[in-house]
Amino acid sequence: MNQLFGLCVIPLTLCVVSLLLPKPKLTRLLVSIGHWLQLFVLVNLSAPLLSGAKSELSLGPEFSLDAIGAGFVLLTTFVVACASTHLNYYFAVEKDKSGESGHERLFYFCVNAFLLAMTFIFLCDNLGFLWISLEATTLSSAPLVYFERTKNALEATWKYVIICSVGIAFALLGTVFIYAAGQHGLDRQGSLSISALVSNAHDLDFSLLRLGFIFSVLGYGTKAGIFPLHSWLPDAYSEAPAPASAMLSGAFVNCALYGIFRVSQIMIAAGHATLSSQMLVILGTVTVAAGSFFLIHQHSFKRMWAYSSIENVGLMLIAIGLGSGSLFLLQAINHSVAKVALFLLSGNIVQAFGSKKLSELKGIFKACPIWAFLLVLSSMAVTGMPPFGAFISEMSILTANAQVGNWVCVAVLILSITVAFVAISTHVGRILVGSAKKSFSPSVAANVVPAVLVLSSFVLGVMFRLQSWVVLK
User: Fold this and answer.
1) Is the pLDDT of residue 473 over 60?
2) What's the pTM value of the predicted model, to 2 decimals?
């Protein structure tokens, strides 16, 4: 319990600091330092799990952490730390637009509340707490989408809250069904403890468990942006400030999919892995195909990356359907690292050009060669080109599907990934060439975080060894 409380201290302190400190510059500095300090604390806590010395770490009643959860909580904190570090540059450029400091203070308060809610998702060993934490992520992140206070931002926020609330209502219904399934086992008392449900899965009522699984997938899948429940996602990613879009794509999506992963563990333990696998692989394949083909006709720079995120949500859903937590985590890491770099670079470019429209973004190579260079590399990384990490994870997903005979899935994935690669390459190629209206000389702060993320994706691809992930299975 002390460790659980310790994990809350830094985010809660930063929430208070964000509201009380009068100087925005000092708030930006303290928040970014605090997030890296939180990552350091989590690395120390997770080390025994990731090294295989321990299989699980108890943090109190209904709260625990295993190796997969440790991997995700580290990834989430890393994404938020990168985004908050880049916010120093972003707000320095935006200060004339952002207005009074109180507006920015609310933004930072919500970022820290968002981080706290996401952290708890990976610590919960209880379906009820998991549902509450996921709902808290929606409430704390909605003001981030509305930051610009424009008509489009209001519409995107409204759609985000309403659709995700409908989704979370489905997830609540799924949780109730799973609890009811437990009343037919577990000494007829029912339980929301994930460990207890997995241990006694064969005693659960199958009809109620199946309903619970279906509603949970629909509910958490809506928050993740699976097709056709994705309509909130392109608007929210497009209207939110670029660092907030990076957090939504690189961290929030993983949280919703983690909820599906936890429920699927109960289905697998109950001996219904086939039903779980078929449903998730089909939904994932359709989502990959839809996201890829939506990429063809895009006119907005940030919406393009939003549809790329939908494609990757499908890939992660397939990994969950294959019952491989390690493959799910690997794809999540590779997608998050590349996509956060892309959103931060997109924010730089949109700020410099003053437009999100692809037709108005020309000559980036001449205007700012370093941004063009990083944009090309991060686009290659997110489309799964070698030698970047996503190539390894996407090839692993294709191979795993081939091994179990999902040949239709393999064919659709190869076609969809190819379409996504061609579409993104075409859009990015068009904005790189041409005559730029003016040239830019960005400060070092604009390039540091995207460059580190691109380098991380490269290292993941070159240094990756499958054996190192065995402990996470």
Assistant:
1) no
2) 0.94
